[in-house]
Write a structure and sequence with these properties.
CATH superfamily of the largest domain: RimP-like superfamily, N-terminal
Strand order of the largest sheet: 1-2-3-6-5-4
Number of domains: 2
Strand content: 35-45%
CATH class of the largest domain: Alpha Beta
CATH architecture of the largest domain: 2-Layer Sandwich
Distance between the termini: 27 Å
CATH topology of the largest domain: GMP Synthetase, Chain A, domain 3
Shape: elongated
Helix content: 10-25%
Largest sheet: 6 strands, mixed
Structural class: alpha+beta
Radius of gyration: 19 Å
Amino acid sequence: MATSVGQGKRRGGCKSLPCFSQRQGLYFVWDRSGRKPTFLLEVSPEARLCARSNAGQHAQMTADLEKIRILAERVTVSEGLTLVDVELKGGRSNQLLRIYIDKPQGVSHADCALVSEQMSALLDVEDPFPGPYTLEVSSPGLDRKLVKPSDYTLFTGRRARLVLREPIEAQRVLEGRLAGFEAGRVRLDMGSGVRELDLANIVKARLVLEN
C-alpha cells in the first residue's frame, strides 16, 4: 500500500478498494463503500529523507506511548472528536504511529487532516521519537476494536468477537451480541444464553461486520 500511495496518483472508479491521493506529504486514503476506515498518513521529514545517521539515537528508548496518548487526547477533545486508540508499531529506525479518532456523525478526511497536522506540530515540539516515524490518523472502521470499558455499553446490541486470556469451558475466542457492561463485567449474548466475562480476562475485542 505504501508503494501505491507514494505514487501520488488518485485512482478513479474504485468501489470497495481504497483510493489514494497526495498533498504535500500527506497521504489521504478513503473507502467509498463506507465499510473500511478513512485514514490519513503523514511521513516525518526524517523518514522521507531516510533514517538519520546519528548512531547515538539507536541507544535511545522507543517513543513514550502514554505521552503521545495524552497529546492525542488533548487534540481530539479540542476539536470535538473522540480518541479511540493509539498504537505504536515498528522498530526504532522507523516507527508507525496510528491514531484512531471518531465522532457520532462519522469521521471525515478533513478531521483526519486536522488531527494529523496538529499532532505533527506537537510531536515536533515534544520530540518523543528517537528517529523517523510515520503518522497515520484513521477512523476506527465498522469492525472497530473495543478498547475502553464504555465501548461495551456504547455498542450494546452489536456483534463482537472477544479473545480471552484464560479460556472458559475450553474456549478462548467467543462471539456474540454485546448485552451491556456493569461492575467490571462484560455481558455477551451467545444466542444460547448470556455470559458474564471479567473485563480483565479480555485480551482483544472488536466488533463484527454484519450483512
